[in-house]
Amino acid sequence: MTEFTPFASLTGGILIGLSAVMLMAGLGRIAGISGIASRLLPPFDGEPLGWRIAFVAGLVAAPLVVAAMGLSASTGTPSGSLPLLIVAGGLTGFGAVLGSGCTSGHGVCGLSRGSVRSLTATATFMATGAATVFIVRHVLGGA
């Protein structure tokens, strides 16, 4: 059973929303993590990399800071073999490219801007995620 963590979830949601607003207000950029991270790799689009590096570094540093403070980040440990995790990560990356964005770009930023394209993308990946969890847990008998 997945643990219910309303305070941690609310806090995380507020921080994600705040960071998205700060990035839009400060740089006029959408906080789409797949797009930000993918543009750190060649070929470069000529735009400065500093803010992208800082954004991704913050994503990596945040759980480390929480752990250093002795707090629990309330995260689950992935269950599954390394090959399964690699395939899942690859499919997730492919889906983000195919959908021209990810949960942060479409689900957080796109929906808040009233984008119909983001509503369609978010509904698609949420339904796919729910179907995947159902199949893995109830059809295949996984964790």
Explain this structure to me?
The chain has about 140 residues and is an all-alpha fold. The chain has one domain. It contains six helices and no strands. Helix 5 crosses helix 6. The longest helix is centred in the last third of the chain and has 24 residues. The radius of gyration is 17 Å and the shape is globular.
Number of folding domains?
1
Largest sheet: none
The unreliable regions are: none
Average pLDDT level: 85
Molecular shape:
globular
**Distance from first to last alpha carbon:** 9 Å
Order of helices and strands: HHHHHH
Question: Strand portion, in percent?
Answer: under 5%
Please compute the radius of gyration using only Cα atoms: 17 Å
Structural class: mainly alpha
Record field, number of beta strands: 0
Helix content: 55-70%
Fold topology:
Layout: H1 6-27, H2 33-38, H3 50-68, H4 82-98, H5 103-112, H6 116-139
Helix pairs in contact: 5-6
What features would you highlight for this structure?
143 residues; mainly alpha; 0% strand
Gist of the model:
By secondary structure, this protein is an all-alpha fold. It has one domain. It is built from 6 helices and no strands.
